[in-house]
Amino acid sequence: MKLIAYNDNYYDKVQSYQMDNSQLQFTKTPKENIELAVQNKNRHCILGLTEDDNLAVFFVLHEHSEFTKYFSTPDESTIFVRSLSTDKRYLRQGYAKESLQQLNQYLSEHMPHIKHIALLVDIPNQIAYELYIKLGFVDTGVEINNDGDLTKLMEKDLFSPIS
């Protein structure tokens, strides 16, 4: 698994990315996120590619997101991870976990000013919540209404140990 920033060379891979309805209730598609990133340069679309160069994971690293007022860490040193998804053909094979495990290294190379990671998890999405806990994220106890969905704010220091 390797993490790379999206560029138009990966357009076809993104077009063939598949999500099922259970995923779509919690997150936007890669195509929707790329359109948003074109309009907002603080959104960085990240691809998680398998050893065979197949697109398995997608997420956005968002600087100065609309949720910074809730972070317990400084905005300028915190990155917000949003719209994390796995192509349905690669679900439950460890790719989301592996991509988040590689995030520390990716950020240290490409965004060295970032020292903290924050994300929201929809309260009904217990599978994602448990994954984030295993990866060292802490439930801050802050609940946020995000477009009508109740979510929990989770945070992690960039170089805290990963399970």
Which CATH architecture would you pick? 3-Layer(aba) Sandwich
Q: Which stretches of 5+ consecutive residues score pLDDT under 50?
A: none
Structural domains: how many: 1
Name the beta content range: 25-35%
Enumerate the strands of the largest sheet in spatial order, edge to edge or round the barrel.
1-2-3-4-5-7-6
- List the helices and strands in order: EHHHEEEHHEHEE
Rg, Å, rounded? 15 Å
Globally, the shape reads globular
Report the helical percentage: 25-40%
The chain-level structural class is: alpha+beta
What's the CATH H-level superfamily name? Gcn5-related N-acetyltransferase (GNAT)
Explain what this protein looks like in three dimensions:
The protein is α+β, with helices and mostly antiparallel strands. It has one domain: Aminopeptidase. Helix content is 26%, strand content 33%. It is built from six helices and seven strands. A seven-stranded mixed β-sheet has the order 1-2-3-4-5-7-6. Strand 2 and strand 3 (55-62) form a beta hairpin.
List the helices and strands and how they pair.
Blueprint: E1 2-5, H1 11-15, H2 21-24, H3 30-39, E2 43-49, E3 55-62, E4 78-86, H4 95-101, H5 103-110, E5 116-122, H6 126-134, E6 138-146, E7 149-157
